[in-house]
Design brief:
- The complex is a heterodimer of chains A (360) and B (300).
- Chain A is built from 10 helices and 9 strands.
- Chain B is of the alpha/beta class.
- Helix content of chain B is 43%, strand content 10%.
- In chain B, helix 5 crosses helix 11.
- The chains are: A alpha/beta (360), B alpha/beta (300).
- Chains A and B meet through helix 5 of A and strand 7 and helix 7 of B.
């Protein structure tokens, strides 16, 4: 009996689907075709970003590369470039600072559209007032409650425009752990008492969100977002940056693995369910075993600039502004109704979570 | 010599100084006569004419021990001291690098400023030396200059309830002011390092005429005042942090609306945000009192 090749689902796989061919015998820096886009990003598409600190790299690289990264809460002209980052100008598309959890993103949306008014609105301090939901938006406290509330109103107005006017919403999922108010379930980006406020166990509790909770929150957010912006597309990534600290009982490595696994699964699930949601594998490009942790700094947590470049090289392979692309919509900074593309900044990112390290 | 110099707001001070002094500047000989009666001017003259009046030192010492110095009025001070007041450059130039330092001391780098300063202080040196015997007061830094006037505030606002514009927190505004006035602050700190007596005199409050340019963009007086007051507060805080003395306008020049009283405003042209000579006279009198209280006229 002559030997005939049996046909089966694995018989005609592309090289990229086979570990040996795609990874096992390839220099990790030469791995190709890691990502295939689901939709095109047009040069004129208004791109906004949010997420954990790794998202800052994406924002910076997108605007450096000529995409139409939009800033809806820009610094005023003459604001010192050297201080812009400390005041969270130009870091993201609005001054929401790092949004670590999906619950925090959903909450930001709800607050922007006045569907939620957190019970704990201001943290009074000797030298001023802190916003519990943006405790490090400025290097010091707000001068007064009025100062804080005016800044918040202005910020939430900018957030509304972020959500309603963008063509592409890029969100980097960072953590599953958060501290929440026992009064109304509002989550804080940083544990009360670490950089501002006072920790009160009767008012503040720890949460480590499950897959179900993360998925539900993200679905709620996406539904609400599509309601105010029906044509918006979403690009999800998962931050490859491990946790700084965990309040979960597990070892920090195990806790990190849980967080990233849940978030990766949520992103994958949503991307598989929706044509308007894409997943970009920045987590895998940095953290997968073939990369041998080469793009982590010595602390095995921070991602090196070379790592960011490597991630983005995969992104720009598939999303490239046309050579003849019109310049990004250069909208005047003095017209708040028009978002302003901001100048490129240095590679440093604002990682509020790292502030935890200083108190440990 | 006391040198009051700075931006265009110095013009009102110069005119006010001339009104306050009322007469032509006294010559050293006539100043010497007064010096016998009051030791403080004499000490200054000894400093300026050491050979001619070397013996006066002992007279001064004796005078100091025998009788208390009468409290001089601003008019006395304006008449008895060698005071020079004049604009040396436009306001915006003080918000950019405008000086350099070498072994001789500090020099103004813009030719116009250097030239005006030279004329103002002649025949004394046209640069500022280490431990310069002259006293300096700069009129600049307290006014948000043209770059921060109405056009700037069309995108941002310091007002708490402003729809359609981004709110600029007090902290962020202060950071902006700190950066905006950095060249001037560097100038002042450099003079401190050179052990030179230097202080700052504030520009006048926002004038009703200057408000016209704001009104075209529908800014309320409250917002305009906030912009000016916070600018002033921020700069004053920076000076305070560095131990640099400053003199703010006296309360009587403010109107009920927080603006410069109308009768003290310049009427030279539309949208003129400067003050007039009457304001200058009041402000110079206030400045001289302030300087006297700080011992500027009695320090040898």
């Amino acid at each position: 009996m002559s030997e005939t090749k049996k046909s089966h689902p694995y018989s005609a796989l592309e090289d990229r689907a086979l570990w040996r061919k795609a990874v096992g015998t390839v220099n990790p820096l030469m791995v190709t075709d890691l990502y295939r886009r689901k939709f095109e990003i047009r040069p004129e598409d208004r791109i906004v970003t949010a997420g954990s600190c790794f998202a800052q790299h994406l924002a910076r690289k997108l605007r450096e590369s000529g995409f139409n990264f939009c800033d809806y809460e820009p610094a005023p002209d003459l604001f010192p470039a050297s201080e812009a980052k400390a005041y969270n100008y130009g870091v993201y598309s609005a001054r929401y600072c790092n949004i670590y959890t999906i619950r925090q993103l959903w909450q930001t949306f709800e607050r922007a559209f006045a569907h939620r008014e957190p019970a704990e609105g201001v943290w009074e301090a000797e030298d001023g007032c802190y916003d519990p939901f943006r405790p490090v938006v400025e290097p010091g406290p707000f001068a007064s409650r009025e100062d804080l509330e005016a800044s918040r109103r202005s910020h939430l107005a900018a957030c509304r425009r972020v959500f309603t006017e963008c063509d592409l919403f890029v969100f980097t999922l960072g953590l599953t752990e958060a501290w929440e108010s026992k009064l109304d379930g509002s989550v804080y980006p940083l544990c009360p008492g670490t950089v501002a406020g006072e920790f009160d166990p009767s008012r503040h509790g720890f949460r480590n969100f499950t897959f179900g909770e993360c998925y539900a929150d993200m679905t709620s957010f996406i539904d609400a977002l599509r309601e105010v912006n029906p044509t918006v597309k979403i690009l999800l990534t998962v931050s490859p940056v491990p946790l700084t600290a965990t309040k979960a009982p597990e070892h920090i490595m195990v806790a990190t693995s849980y967080s990233k696994s849940v978030l990766r699964a949520v992103a994958g699930q949503l991307a598989s369910e929706n044509a308007f949601i894409d997943y970009f594998p920045s987590f895998e490009i940095i953290a997968a075993t073939p990369m041998r942790a080469m793009f982590y700094e010595r602390n095995m947590r921070s991602v090196s600039p070379a790592g960011v470049d490597f991630v983005m090289s995969h992104f720009f392979e598939k999303h490239r502004p046309r050579a003849d692309a019109p310049a990004p919509r250069q909208t005047p900074a003095d017209a708040p109704s028009k978002p302003r593309p901001v100048d490129p900044d240095e590679a440093d990112v604002v990682c509020e979570e790292m502030l935890l390290d200083q108190g440990l | 010599m006391l040198v009051v110099f700075g931006d265009s707001h110095t013009i009102a001070l110069r005119e006010g100084f001339q009104r306050l002094r009322g007469i032509a500047q006294l010559r050293p000989a006539s100043m010497l006569k007064r010096a016998v009666a009051t030791w403080e001017p004499a000490a200054r003259i000894v400093e300026r004419h050491p050979k001619a009046i070397a013996a006066a030192e002992s007279i001064v010492r004796r005078a100091r021990s025998l009788r208390p110095a009468p409290t001089p009025t601003p008019k006395d001070l304006a008449r008895e001291f060698d005071i020079r007041v004049g604009q040396i450059d436009h306001g915006y130039t003080f918000h950019r690098p405008f000086f350099r330092v070498d072994a001789k001391g500090l020099h103004f780098t813009r030719p116009a400023a250097a030239n005006f300063f030279r004329k103002l202080v002649a025949p004394s040196p046209a640069h500022i030396e280490r431990r310069d015997a002259r006293r300096f007061v700069i009129c600049s830094g307290f006014y948000p200059s043209s770059a921060l006037l109405s056009k700037f505030w069309q995108s941002h606002s310091t007002a708490h309830n402003t729809e359609g514009r981004h709110y600029l927190s007090r902290g962020a505004y202060h950071a902006l002011v700190r950066d905006y006035t950095a060249p001037l602050l560097r100038f002042l700190v450099t003079l401190q390092d050179l052990q030179v007596d230097v202080s700052v005199v504030a520009s006048p409050p926002m004038s009703p005429n200057g408000l016209l340019s704001w009104k075209t963009a529908s800014f309320g007086i409250e917002e305009v005042n906030t912009v000016h007051d916070e600018f002033r507060n921020a700069f004053a805080a920076e000076l305070g942090r560095r131990g640099i003395p400053y003199t703010l306008p006296p309360p009587e020049v403010y109107g009920a609306d927080g603006l410069l009283r109308q009768e003290l405003a310049s009427t030279r042209k539309v949208n003129d945000y400067h003050a007039n000579a009457k304001y200058g006279e009041a402000m110079v009198a206030h400045l001289l009192e302030d300087l006297a209280a700080r011992g500027v006229f009695s320090t040898p």
